[in-house]
Every structure is written in structure tokens, then in C-alpha cells.
UniProtKB/TrEMBL annotation:
It comes from the Eukaryota. Belongs to the protein kinase superfamily. Residues 1-174 form the Protein kinase domain. This is Serine/threonine-protein kinase CTR1-like protein. It comes from Trifolium pratense (Red clover).
Length: 174
């Protein structure tokens, strides 16, 4: 794997653009510090790899390879997509409120929402069900034809038949 420029950073990993076997790829390199400070770090990382490795859907990010040899070598290789739903909706950068960016047409936004719903339906129909638990615009990528790819399964959980889970609350209770 050839690592090129750093294209992102999360709480547990740095993400690089790279090349592998002639493909443009994104490489998520897990921080060694993550494994030193998180007792469940290996399980957390293995969960993401296992979840992604079993998924084959046109709206779910395609896993191409992985390595788990903590604490110094742990990475995931996926197809490279350079635009997130967040960037598509609000423009690049961190200070959205300082710029006026018009939203894409409603029809295009509805199409993206439908594709996300199809990806979620697919994940929820798996045996066991896959619950993403971190679905947000920065975890949804767009391909070159603007079709979505749901990504970042680090917080995902599996639910067997008949199981239900409450993972948090939203809104206010009066």
C-alpha cells in the first residue's frame, strides 16, 4: 500500500488517500494510542472490519482489505471517494456559517435520502441485523455519479432475531 496525502482525521484514526494494486483507495490507520488507552480497542476495530467485510450493497462502502496487528499496525482499505454528503450539502471546510452555499435541488436531496434508506434497509435485513449507530452526513460518501456509500461501521452492533436495543435518546421529554 502506498500512502499519499492525509485526507481526514477522526477520534481514533487518520485517513489517507493511497494506492493499492492499481486502485485509488482510502486507508484508515488506527492510532496506536487508541489500543493503549482502550481496553476494547481490538474488539472495536475487529467489529468494523467484520461488519464491512460481509456487506455487498451498492450503497455501502466497499472494503478492499484490512490488517489487524496492534498496537502499531491496524488499518482498513476501502474504495476512495473524495466527497461526503456533508460537503455536498454545505460546501467544504469547517466554517459553514461564514459562507452562503445554496443547497442542491430538492429532487437530488430526496434521491440521496432514498439511497441512504435503501442501505439502512439492507443492513437491517441482515442476519443478524446490523445497526449502524453513527449515521451522519460526514459518514456518508458520494461516488462520482453522486450515489451514496454508507461508511464508518466502528460503532455498529449486531442484533439477533427478536432482539431490540435502545442506544440513546433524541429530543426532549416533557
Amino acid at each position: 500500500i502506498q500512502l499519499d496525502e492525509k485526507i481526514g482525521q477522526g477520534t481514533t484514526a487518520d485517513i489517507y488517500r493511497g494506492a493499492w494494486r492499481g486502485f485509488d483507495v482510502a486507508v484508515k490507520c488506527i492510532s496506536p494510542e487508541f489500543f493503549r488507552t482502550n481496553a476494547n480497542g481490538v474488539e472495536f476495530f475487529a467489529q468494523e472490519v467484520e461488519t464491512l467485510s460481509k456487506q455487498r450493497h451498492r450503497f455501502v462502502l466497499n472494503l478492499m482489505g484490512a490488517c489487524l496487528n496492534p498496537p502499531n499496525h491496524a488499518w482498513v482499505v476501502t474504495e476512495y471517494l473524495n466527497t461526503t454528503l456533508k460537503e455536498w450539502l454545505h460546501g467544504p471546510g469547517k466554517r459553514r456559517r461564514d459562507r452562503i452555499v445554496s443547497l442542491p435541488p430538492l429532487k437530488d436531496r430526496v434521491i440521496r435520502a432514498s439511497e441512504i434508506a435503501q442501505a439502512m434497509q439492507y443492513l437491517h435485513e441482515q442476519k443478524p441485523k446490523i445497526i449502524h449507530r453513527d449515521l451522519k452526513p460526514s459518514n456518508i460518501f458520494l461516488d462520482f455519479e453522486l450515489h451514496v456509500r454508507v461508511a464508518d461501521f466502528g460503532h455498529a452492533r449486531f442484533l439477533g432475531d427478536g432482539e431490540m436495543a435502545l442506544t440513546g435518546e433524541t429530543g426532549k421529554l416533557n
